[in-house]
TrEMBL record:
Family: Belongs to the UPF0718 family.
Compartment(s) where it occurs, according to its Swiss-Prot or TrEMBL record: Cell membrane
Keyword Transmembrane helix: yes
Transmembrane stretches, start-end: 14-30, 51-74, 94-116, 128-151, 157-180, 258-278, 290-312, 318-338
Protein name: Permease
Chief location category: membrane
Isomerase found in the keyword field: no
InterPro entries: DUF318 (IPR005524), UPF0718 (IPR052923)
A Pfam family this chain is assigned to: ArsP_1
Keywords (A to Z) from UniProt: Cell membrane, Membrane, Transmembrane, Transmembrane helix
Membrane protein topology class: Multi-pass membrane protein
Amino acid sequence: MQVNKNIGVFRKELIGFGLLFMFLTAFFFMEQIKTGPVMKDLPGTIVHVNTIFLSILIEAIPFILLGVFVSALIQTFVSEESLQKYLPKNPVLAVLPAALFGLLAPICECAIVPVVRRLIKKGMPLHIGFVFLAAAPIVNPVVILSTYYAFRNDLTILYSRMGLGILVAIVTGLFIWILFRNSDQLKWSKEEMVSRREDSTVKPKMNRLKQTLYHASDEFFDTGKYIIIGAFLASLFQTLLDREFLLSIGNDEIRSTGIMMGLAFLLSVCSEADAFIAASFNGTFSKTSLIAFLVFGPMLDVKNAIMLFAYFKSKFVMVFITLITVLVFGSVLILSHFV
């Protein structure tokens, strides 16, 4: 039994180091790869997909590392008792500080899912975790600054993004509380179930630095495969989407809002850079459809949707996706009558 476990661990480490080697090779030798004999013989579309895929990974990896280290620190230093002590006891009143906590925790949507999963495992109520998940990538101070610079000539877009982001996150959290209360919606692997049993028994404490590094490494390789899949799908969408066709059908408020929300999901641009993408559509799509792009994308895109389905029960994730989509779409259409 122990031999099989050691083989499994070795296989995971081998795959992980292999992926890391591929990433570093692509990162440092990108130009040589693009101009090499193999790439010259490939169709331009494949080269373009590869370029976008690597750019998404390079953009996401630093934030993923931030997320997994925050998750590891939570696992090592934050106890269930301390969470219960500092969280507001009233489940309804607790949603507001959860929505604003992103001001203190600069985490974008690339890294938020493993952090929220770890907090929920530690005892954070399900609805509070998902308020934080939806709001943090929008009220992130870096995101606020990037949106300000991208739309400094029209700050109503910045204010609308912040306001709608917080509002949609809070309403989503309240719906989750009503529908699911504190039911367990996490998916637990066999290894995690064993770990839970081991944590409940008395065992010698590992050095906290080693614990943090161990959990961060494990989390990175666990999350990494979903980021790779999500980045690949997003690169396909970015390459194959016909933007001219989208522009031709995006003339009215309802269609343009739907199109920009769809683009936000498919393009999977990091929330700390998406304002500049949205600004490139300024004048072509309506102001409120740009706001829809800026609110919906950080809450839900290809990358974090794949991670949500991997870490949470499918029915719950479908309810969350439906809530976010309906609330963002409806609130933006209401906003269009005022801005």
